[in-house]
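Quick one:
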Amino acid sequence: MKLFISRFSVMCRLGMSEEEVIDAFRQEKFPELEMTEGYLPGGVKVPLGRVNVPFTPSGSGPSRNDEMISQAVSQIADVITEAKKRFTAERVGAVIGTSNLAVSEVEQNIVANSASPRQLCYDARLSRIGDLSGIFRKMTGCGGPVYTVATACSSSARAFISAARLIEAGICDAVVVAGTDTLSRIAVAGFESLGVLSLEPCLPFHRSRSGMNIGEGTAMCVLSHEMLGDRSTMLMGYGASSDGYHISSPEPTGTYAAIAMKDALKAAGLKSSDIGYVCLHGTGTKLNDGMEAKAVAKVFPDVPASSIKHLTGHTLGASGIINEFICSLVARGEISLPFHPYDSTDVDPVIDDFNLVTEPDTAAGRPYTVSNSFAFGGNNAVLVTGPCRD
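Output:
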């Protein structure tokens, strides 16, 4: 079955709309990550991929995630309306990926309502991983199945797979796919406690890389079996696997990540030589980059590949759909390939060799793209995207 991706809304460090992100790539003017206090003890500053979405929490009211989702919906409201008009609202569903929903509001609530560190007050209404679905239904008027996927950093890539299966099963004609996560001290300090947070701008696959940076963002699109307007691409195929190796560390040989890539290619009816670009998960940690290099070297050794985490920060549950957004821009020929701003001789010589993009103005030789998303617990998801075709 043909699956069309119609229009993206996006808010991340690179820009607050599709047009702003395209402009950043064309001018090669990328906003630097912001050195920020308040997320680690002792006034330590950490680079974060912040976005400019003002929000004042109001007790148990909406979260900042809700505000970002609302703004994202407004960017593609016409496409959502067209889907409901063409298929009826009952045939339009939604799947939202997240891993960090409302955690910031929970933190603020605990601080505000706790008389002392020994008397914590927790308002359960603020921790609403599933409730985002109900709020999203009200925002969009989708009458079909609406639910939330939370598989850590592969959440919004998994949301694409869930949406595709809803359409393939005949349950929906169109599905709004979204991913969202906002910054929180728990996430930043949590990755610091794991020893994988960098206090400098991250350098994925570099010989001197010291860890990841955290970011935030929201992106959204409509997946359907018919094209809905302009700026469309196609979801050609998808693959998924599970390492079953460790709660947070990836399986070091990249075997199961490679399986997900191969399955996605097979589903798309393509060969590795058909692919023009691989958007890597590429967090900048020693273990993740080492594993992904092995997997990519097995499946796409000659295909240009790069990460965008040094540009956006790791947006956690939103990273899969933001990667997919970048892949769609490449597939449509809107931007040159994201590149790593260091010399090729600085690529870590220990990791397996593959075609990492380190030069600006690199073009994809072919229009088909691959997006990798890997998560805690070895939850792997891979998407293949291409231009629209008859």
